[in-house]
Amino acid sequence: MKKLALENLSIGLAACCVFAASPASFAGEGSLDGMIRMMDTDGDGKISLEEHAAGTKKMFEMMDGDKDGKVTATEMDAAHGKMGKMMGKKPAKTDMSSADMIKICDANNDGALMTEEHVLCGKKMFEKMDADKDGSLTKAELTAGHAKMMQKPAK
Fold first, then answer.
1. What is the pLDDT of residues 108-121, one digit of tens each?
2. What is the 3-class SS of the chain, one letter each residue?
3. How far apart are CA 32 and CA 146, in angstroms?
């Protein structure tokens, strides 16, 4: 299994629940606020590892268009476009393509994300973003981590 590039985890994981949340959960808010509100199931203003894992699972299931247990770049692009249409706006512009995002977590190098790869990357991403190592993510940690992870890896 190849070493994961934690410094460059993708928006596909950083925004793990943006694509799984209902459009109503984003009403009047930016996608980060909506993501926090959707994942923060206990309402404490922080995202626990368990809440993050549940959101990651929902996002993967939503992106897996043909329900075969893997997500391709085509499926990821379709999910981003679908969520943008549901929210009435274009998908966020990032430096990374869906293929770039998948490469970061694609441990078996098959060009697709398997459920296990997605779960592992989600956990590693959470640990990387948890700057104070308290086992939860605040809005500030999510904001900083999301901004860093949306950059295309340096060559």
1. 999 999 999 999 99
2. CCCCCHHHCCHHHHCCCCCCCCHHHHCCCCHHHHHHHHHCCCCCCCEEHHHHHHHHHHHHHHHCCCCCCEECHHHHHHHHHHHHHHHCCCCCCCCCCHHHHHHHHCCCCCCCEEHHHHHHHHHHHHHHHCCCCCCEECHHHHHHHHHHHCCCCCC
3. 9
Residue type at 141 in one-letter notation: E
Q: Residue 132: its pLDDT value, please? A: 96
pTM above 0.90, yes or no: no
Return the closest-CA partner of residue 15 out of 48, 54, 55, 44: 55
Rounded distance, CA 16 to CA 47, Å? 12
Q: How is residue 104 written in tokens?
A: 């970061």
